[in-house]
């Protein structure tokens, strides 16, 4: 922000720290948790990932806006993150795929952005104090009641205990057949299997559904509140639990009974992120809030069964406490950043889940094998 320019946006942290900058996108105010994401690409996928409901995202990579936005890159129909914080004001798009400018898109979709922020200082603050509660305000006239904004950030109850999955889930069931556009090395499209998969939508990213379809699945998506009876009535060959926002323990009030009911049917089951956390809860484990979580596209994860390291895309603020996993449930993956749990499996059964995002959107493709593993488990069951 030029020294002479009057700030048109501000970010007030609950500890009273205030960052001033230039507003873009929608005007108004929002109160949320503040996280940082270190990915160098994929700002549109990040903003439209429903798992970011209730969170404002600080982008540590400074170039945001340079490839514009295109509906093809939406993870759901609209940005779900509450707002975005960037170092420089978004640049004009220069990309053949761009259909809109980031700033215009944010305005149209009612999401606030703030540019000109020292994102390095802000990120250090997030690391030190844990993901803070913030109020983000954008007013072209530059009038801000800072005391009121700080008070709003302080009064906000936060994500612990908050169930947001119901808000972002679909309300009606639907079929999904669209496949991936690009293939990770060594993989090609699997067709003709028609593996009947029921995917529970807690805020599912579209590229996860594409990956399931590409692995040979014929996917029926059900709303978050679907019961085990609803799921099993569709005679699935496998069940998938999606990613999603909020506290897994709060979402678990309805998801856990459903998952326990489905587990009795002894079907292949695969969960990602929130789905992973809720599978752990259903099996008797516990989840805890992390200090500032993991949000980025280069997080190393070790597969404990093979010793292989995957570079993964991550976005989570809660984690499964591996100490609480009961007998018969194994930890399969760990984060090489902090040793936190990144995967579990029920011993001897094709029931498994991962904390990270193997659909590679945005980011690395190393973990696509998990979709194939899920599909292979269904094929094995079919031929048994
Ligand atoms: N990406 C996700 O599914 C996030 C899960 C959960 N809301 C968390 O923050 O840990």
TrEMBL record:
Superkingdom of this protein's organism: Bacteria
Catalytic activity from the UniProt record: hydrogencarbonate + L-glutamine + 2 ATP + H2O = carbamoyl phosphate + L-glutamate + 2 ADP + phosphate + 2 H(+); L-glutamine + H2O = L-glutamate + NH4(+)
Protein's name according to its UniProt entry: Carbamoyl phosphate synthase small chain
Encoding gene per record: carA
One Gene Ontology molecular-function label: carbamoyl-phosphate synthase (glutamine-hydrolyzing) activity
Keywords from the named record: Amino-acid biosynthesis, Arginine biosynthesis, ATP-binding, Glutamine amidotransferase, Ligase, Nucleotide-binding, Pyrimidine biosynthesis
Domain Carbamoyl-phosphate synthase small subunit N-terminal: 7-137
Active site: residue positions: 273 (nucleophile), 357, 359
SMART domains named among the record's database cross-references: CPSase_sm_chain
Species per Swiss-Prot/TrEMBL record: Paragemmobacter amnigenus
Phylogenetic placement of the source organism: Bacteria, Pseudomonadati, Pseudomonadota, Alphaproteobacteria, Rhodobacterales
Residue positions binding L-glutamine: 51, 244, 246, 274, 277, 315, 317-318
């Amino acid at each position: 922000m030029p020294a002479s320019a009057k700030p048109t946006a501000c970010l007030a942290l609950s500890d009273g720290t205030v960052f001033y900058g230039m507003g873009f996108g929608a005007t108004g105010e929002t109160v949320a948790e503040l996280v940082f994401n270190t990915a160098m690409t994929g700002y549109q996928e990040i903003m439209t990932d429903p798992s970011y409901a209730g969170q404002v995202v600080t982008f540590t990579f400074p170039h945001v806006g340079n490839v514009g936005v295109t509906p093809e890159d939406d993870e759901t129909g609209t940005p779900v993150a509450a707002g975005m914080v960037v170092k420089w004001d978004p640049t004009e798009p220069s990309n053949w795929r761009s259909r809109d400018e980031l700033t215009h898109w944010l305005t149209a979709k009612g999401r606030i952005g703030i540019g000109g922020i020292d994102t390095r200082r802000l990120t250090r603050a997030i690391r030190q104090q844990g993901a803070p509660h913030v109020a983000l305000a954008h007013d072209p006239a530059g009038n801000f009641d800072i005391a009121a904004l700080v008070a709003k950030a302080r009064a906000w109850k936060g994500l612990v205990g908050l169930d947001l999955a119901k808000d972002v889930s679909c309300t009606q069931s639907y079929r999904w057949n669209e496949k991936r556009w690009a293939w990770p090395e060594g993989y090609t499209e699997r067709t003709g299997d028609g593996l009947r998969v029921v995917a529970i939508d807690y805020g599912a990213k579209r590229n996860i559904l594409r990956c399931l379809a590409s692995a040979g699945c014929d996917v029926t998506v059900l709303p978050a509140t679907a019961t085990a009876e609803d799921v099993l009535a569709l005679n699935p060959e496998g069940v998938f639990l999606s990613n999603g926002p909020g506290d897994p323990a709060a979402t678990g009030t309805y998801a856990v009974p459903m998952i326990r009911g489905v587990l009795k049917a002894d079907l292949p089951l695969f969960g990602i992120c929130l789905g992973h956390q809720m599978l752990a809860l259903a099996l008797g484990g516990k989840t805890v809030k992390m200090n500032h979580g993991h949000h980025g596209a280069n997080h190393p994860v070790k597969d404990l069964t093979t010793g292989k390291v995957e570079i993964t895309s991550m976005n989570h603020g809660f984690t499964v406490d591996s100490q609480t996993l009961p007998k018969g449930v194994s930890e399969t993956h760990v984060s090489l950043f902090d040793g936190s749990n990144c995967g579990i499996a029920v011993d001897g059964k094709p029931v498994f889940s991962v904390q990270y995002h193997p659909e590679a959107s945005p980011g690395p493709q190393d973990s696509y094998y998990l979709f194939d593993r899920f599909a292979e488990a269904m094929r094995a069951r079919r031929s048994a």
